[in-house]
Design a protein that fits this description.
- 7% of the residues lie in helices and 33% in strands.
- It starts with 6 loop residues before the first helix and ends with a strand.
- It has a 6-stranded mixed sheet, with no helix packed on it. Strands 19-26-25-22-23 form a 5-stranded mixed sheet, with no helix packed on it.
- 42% of the residues are buried.
- The protein is built from 3 helices and 26 strands.
- It folds into 2 domains: 7-73 and 153-335, no CATH class; 347-423, Sandwich (Immunoglobulin-like), CATH 2.60.40.3080.
- It has helices at 7-19, 102-110, 236-242; strands at residues 41-53, 59-70, 90-93, 96-99, 126-127, 134-135, 157-165, 177-178, 184-188, 193-195, 219-221, 227-229, 263-267, 272-274, 292-295, 304-308, 320-321, 330-335, 345-346, 351-354, 362-369, 371-376, 381-384, 389-397, 404-412, 415-423.
Length: 424
């Protein structure tokens, strides 16, 4: 019950790829493990090289984090109500978001789903729109509401492991790549997967008019058994209120809302996602098609390209991405303990580089390392160390290289440091 890739083979392949100089580096390192919750980590944040899709056919590698979290979140409400007096979660019917209550069921009745038992108006029956067969929709038979059971493991803990690029890769564009239904977007601060919109009742024949529910924070279990979000919980009450939901009664209460301007998580390509408001609680301006723009945030006061969640749509995640993302983004399964065979840990204190920017051609590298390399942003190797430095100072003449941004990668044992270098 494991999703797609072996971490050991991935890292071995990635390290080989790096040695062949087909590694590219982010324009900035934005992802920081300190921004994420540490309470549910099973295998700590490590560094490696993850495959990315550049042209649609070619694959190269970029520095990334790999982390494993426990899949811990469960909804505190019954997502599929048993009768017309109950209120469940939310779902998409005919591409519009609805609360699963009597208003939706009356609308489904008008749409021809025959969702209400005409005999007593109590049990919610379901008329399969393809076969025409009416199925009892009472307790234990939620055919109108397609709900999976969350599987939290048998004897072991259910886990999710993610790859997140350290930051966005700036390849000449522009690019606007829409997320598909249930397409993976990124990771929320709590370490839970974020996907795009769930299927609507009319999206595929297999749905037969049924609703896939999410709770009011945007979460649900999927048929494989693990849980994920289809909406960003940070600030989602703002969107619920905007679509006419009485948020004094129906709201996201399982996850703290804050003031709606906080960092919510990161996309897999390393771009931060924020709530619907700016830090001063104003509405963001100048948003592009992916709900992103450049501006200062508490974590990046100098300004950064970032996404905002929608303030008017409960399916509030960014609808598209403007950069590349890792191909093997995540996996899940039952956690059996133990670490990965090859682990690279970030050590920000491994080396120090100065002056930076380099204004007179000479870069000083000070620290304890086994090996270092300097690359262009396109992944071309320009400098490689000849040997080992033990707490010493190395001077590198960079005057022959064009002005611009470069990346220094220093390694010692299983520790790794990336430094962005600017040559003026």
């Amino acid at each position: 019950m494991k999703k797609s890739f072996s971490v050991l083979m991935l890292l071995l392949t990635c390290l080989l790829a790096q040695s062949q100089n087909d590694t590219i580096y982010p324009t900035d390192t934005l992802v920081n493990p300190s921004y994420f919750s540490s309470s549910n980590i099973l295998a700590n944040w490590t560094m490696g090289y993850c495959s990315v899709n550049i042209t649609g056919t070619d694959t190269t590698f970029a520095p990334c984090y790999i982390v494993t979290y426990e899949d811990y979140y469960t909804a505190s409400i019954d997502l599929c109500p048993d009768n017309l007096d109950e209120v469940g979660g939310m779902g998409l019917h005919l591409d519009s978001a609805w609360v699963l209550d009597s208003n939706l069921f009356n609308q489904m009745e008008l749409d021809g789903s025959n969702i209400i038992n005409d005999t007593n108006g109590y049990w919610i029956n379901y008329n399969n729109l393809t076969s025409g067969v009416t199925i009892d929709g009472g307790p234990g038979s939620h055919k109108y509401c397609i709900e999976a059971d969350l599987f939290l493991g048998t004897t072991n803990t259910w886990y999710q492991r993610f790859e997140i690029l350290l930051g966005p890769i700036d390849i000449p564009g522009p690019f606007t790549i829409p997320y598909s239904t249930a397409g993976t977007i990124g990771v929320l601060k709590a370490g839970v997967l974020l996907e795009y919109t769930p299927p609507s009742s009319n999206s595929t024949p297999a749905m037969n008019g049924g609703i896939i529910p999410i709770d009011f924070c945007g979460w649900h279990p999927e048929p494989a058994g693990f849980g994920h979000f289809h909406a960003v919980p940070t600030g989602i009450n703002v969107a619920l209120d905007a679509v006419g939901v009485d948020t004094s009664v129906i709201n996201c209460s399982d996850i703290a809302q804050g003031n709606g301007s906080e960092l919510a998580g990161f996309t897999f390509e390393g771009i931060p996602i924020y709530g619907p408001f700016e830090t001063d609680l104003s509405m963001p301006t100048g948003l592009d098609a992916c709900n992103g723009h450049f501006g200062p945030t508490p974590e990046f006061p100098g300004g950064v390209y970032h996404y905002h969640v929608s303030a008017t749509d409960v399916i509030n995640a960014p609808p598209c991405r403007a950069n590349y993302m890792s191909l093997n983004a995540w996996e899940y399964g039952e956690w059996t303990g133990g670490g990965m065979a090859i682990e690279f840990h970030e050590n920000a204190d491994l080396i120090n580089v100065f002056p930076n920017p380099v204004s007179e051609g000479v870069l000083n590298i000070e620290g304890d390392y086994d090996h270092f390399t300097i690359y262009t942003v396109d992944g071309a190797l320009v400098v490689e160390s000849n040997g080992k430095s033990i707490s010493s100072l190395t001077q590198i003449n960079l005057s022959k290289f064009p002005a611009g941004m470069y990346f220094l990668n220093a390694e010692k044992g299983n520790e790794m440091t990336f430094k962005k270098i600017v040559i003026n």
